[in-house]
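Renewal narrative, Specific Aim 1. Our central claim is that a sequence can be written position by position from structural information alone. The example that follows is taken directly from our test logs and has not been curated for this report. It begins with the structure tokens describing the chain, in the order in which they were read.
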């Protein structure tokens, strides 16, 4: 997505407003336009990232991510997996799609702050499977919680592996 047109439009609006105010204000506005370029781009990127997060909540388990690569940001859309019955090698995947009740339920948000090295490994694993990080984490957590030997701790109510 090209941001230059939006930044230029704001620059033109700022210049037009300063013309009305007189020569002193116009001089100040001309000095402020260049430093405002970076700030405007940053605010636009923040707005795009927030929009991608909101769209992801509506698409879950699909997702939309904003990639910040020079010269301009790009959106990456990962659609939800098709609801076809799994057969062949895909059926043996260590990360099966979440069950229907997980996919169809309301979407919740948690903050997960792994160490940088683990974050990189998660991103690489998701990329290898052609999934968004959110979809990969959802599938991995579902597989772990549905694995044999996973029980609910009767004293704490937490799910885990208790021997």
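The sequence written for that structure reads:
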């Amino acid at each position: 997505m090209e941001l230059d047109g939006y930044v230029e439009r704001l620059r033109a609006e700022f210049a037009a407003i300063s013309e009305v105010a007189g020569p002193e204000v116009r001089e100040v506005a001309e000095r402020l336009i260049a430093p405002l370029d970076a700030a405007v781009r940053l605010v636009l990127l923040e707005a795009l990232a927030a929009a991608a997060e909101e769209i992801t909540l509506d698409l879950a388990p699909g997702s939309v991510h904003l990639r910040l690569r020079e010269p301009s940001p790009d959106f990456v859309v990962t659609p939800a997996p098709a609801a076809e019955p799994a057969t062949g090698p895909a059926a043996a995947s260590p990360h099966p799609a979440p069950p229907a009740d997980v996919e169809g339920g309301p979407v919740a948000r948690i903050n997960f702050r792994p160490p940088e090295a683990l974050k990189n490994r998660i991103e690489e694993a998701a990329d290898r499977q052609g999934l968004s990080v959110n979809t990969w984490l959802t599938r991995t957590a579902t597989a772990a919680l549905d694995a044999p030997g996973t029980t609910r701790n009767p004293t704490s109510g937490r799910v885990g592996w208790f021997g």
